[in-house]
């Protein structure tokens, strides 16, 4: 993991190159205040303060050079990420104010997933100095959480099965003094029948399990976080085409988000009783695979007719949600790479948010705006519940007609959550198909920072 703490340091007046953050609207005033040598360099670079523009500014001595970078009119976390790759190793400070939220982009621009490279890329260490010393730890923790999601999602399924996912949770538990348990085998089949059914076609080494972590004072409000841990999804007997399987190592992206969020809660020592649950499976194909038309019993007792074995994520989440609400949490969040329908509706950048309480939805949307981690609320439209009707079981796991797929998936999950429990469901992509500054192509945290900011405000440490 990248040593983010070494890249963001308190400003104690140590030598550093200045970084001028310039916006187009204030360009003329800024330029008028620069020495002649800097103005000449700006003119030669055709620099006007537009976002993404860059100019090298000479100083009175060769070692006193500075840089100017064009910034968007509205500040965001990725404003500095684009310049990092242009800078050599060294210390830098902003000439105008402090980095604020943009420190996140500075940090994550240094992160690489190079586990499988024979010669990992050498990354110059550019240290950003900040006068906001109190915010350093928070920025470093958030960068670490985002990097954790990226690394877990980017790891191929051959090296990130249910056992390895459990090891990642155990490492977080050990680092924070939390209780860690794993349920598998007969105990899983008895207590979590849908988790067991979805994962039973995998090899013994990659068998299904329910991973749990508990942390914090039992007297504090209980917060449950659930993450979909499908470590690879073949589609089961309703097999995906090869193109559909290509990115299915990321189908445990919900679990990665849940673990990263739980880690933030523990590291910041929020006054909550944390309960993390990750149902971890591989949706494989064998003679023992669960079949279309099967009837599964759930932990809650509801029977589920299998209309499609490729709608497996909601099955394992149903059992995990049923377990979570047995302890009556004041708040329940779940993350899942659940439906392609959400991506068709909202694209890769916007997680679909389903919430059963308006106050919670308002808090999450406000947090998303504060930290520039966009989410979009979609309706738990009760009128579509009929799409999940079964003639021989309590519910079907797949809606008929192919319409409102993300809504019907959320309605399926809602069957396992009491109306008295405040609940939010994130249908996130967990993947970035096109690179942007500070955000390489690959696994990414989408909705994580919004959820964390909501928790940080609701449960101040």
Automatic annotation (TrEMBL):
Assigned GO CC terms: cytoplasm
Domain Cytosol aminopeptidase per the UniProt entry, residue ranges: 308-315
Keyword Disulfide bond: no
Highest taxon of the lineage: Bacteria
One BP term from GO: proteolysis
GO molecular function term, any single one: manganese ion binding
InterPro entries, A to Z: Leucine_aapep/pepB, Macro_dom-like, Peptidase_M17_C, Peptidase_M17_N_1
Family statement: Belongs to the peptidase M17 family.
Protein name, UniProt field: Leucyl aminopeptidase
């Amino acid at each position: 993991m990248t040593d983010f703490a070494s890249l963001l340091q308190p400003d104690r007046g140590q030598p550093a190159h200045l970084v001028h953050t310039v916006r187009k609207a204030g360009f003329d005033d800024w330029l008028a205040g620069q020495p002649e040598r800097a103005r000449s360099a700006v003119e030669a670079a055709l620099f006007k303060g537009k976002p993404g523009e860059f100019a090298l500014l000479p100083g009175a001595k060769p070692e006193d050079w500075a840089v100017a970078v064009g910034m968007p009119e509205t500040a965001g976390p990725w404003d500095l990420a684009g310049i990092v790759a242009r800078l050599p190793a060294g210390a830098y400070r902003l000439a105008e104010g402090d980095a604020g939220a943009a420190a996140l982009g500075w940090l994550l621009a240094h992160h690489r997933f190079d586990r499988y490279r024979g010669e990992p890329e050498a990354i110059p260490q550019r240290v950003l100095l900040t006068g906001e010393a109190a915010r350093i730890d928070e920025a470093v923790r958030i960068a670490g959480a985002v990097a954790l999601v990226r690394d877990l999602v980017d790891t191929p399924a051959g090296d990130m099965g249910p056992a390895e996912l459990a090891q990642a949770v155990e490492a977080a538990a050990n680092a924070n003094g939390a209780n860690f348990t794993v349920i598998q085998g007969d105990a899983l089949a008895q207590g979590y029948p849908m988790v067991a059914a979805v994962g039973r076609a995998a090899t013994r080494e990659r068998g299904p399990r329910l991973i749990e972590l508990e942390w914090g004072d039992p007297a504090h409000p209980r917060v449950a976080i659930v993450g979909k841990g499908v470590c690879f999804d073949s589609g089961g007997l309703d097999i995906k085409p090869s193109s559909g399987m290509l990115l299915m190592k990321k189908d445990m992206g919900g679990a990665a988000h849940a673990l990263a969020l739980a880690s933030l809660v523990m590291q910041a020592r929020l006054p909550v009783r944390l309960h993390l649950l990750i149902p971890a499976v591989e949706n494989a194909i064998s003679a023992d695979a669960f079949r279309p038309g099967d009837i599964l019993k759930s932990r809650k007792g509801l029977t589920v007719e299998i209309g499609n074995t490729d709608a497996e994520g909601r099955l394992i989440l149903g059992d995990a949600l049923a377990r979570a609400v047995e302890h009556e949490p004041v708040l329940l969040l779940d993350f899942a790479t659940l439906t392609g329908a959400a991506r068709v509706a909202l694209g890769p950048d916007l997680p679909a948010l389903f919430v059963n309480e308006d106050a919670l939805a308002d808090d999450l949307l406000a947090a998303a705006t504060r930290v520039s981690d966009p989410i979009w609320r979609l309706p738990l439209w009760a009128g579509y519940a009929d799409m999940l009707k079964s003639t021989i079981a309590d519910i079907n796991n797949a809606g008929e007609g192919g319409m409102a797929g993300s809504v019907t998936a959320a309605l399926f999950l809602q069957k396992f959550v009491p109306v008295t429990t405040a609940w939010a469901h994130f249908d996130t992509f967990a993947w970035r198909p096109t690179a942007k500054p500070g955000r390489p192509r690959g696994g990414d945290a989408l909705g994580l920072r919004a959820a964390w900011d909501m928790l940080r405000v609701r449960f101040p440490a």
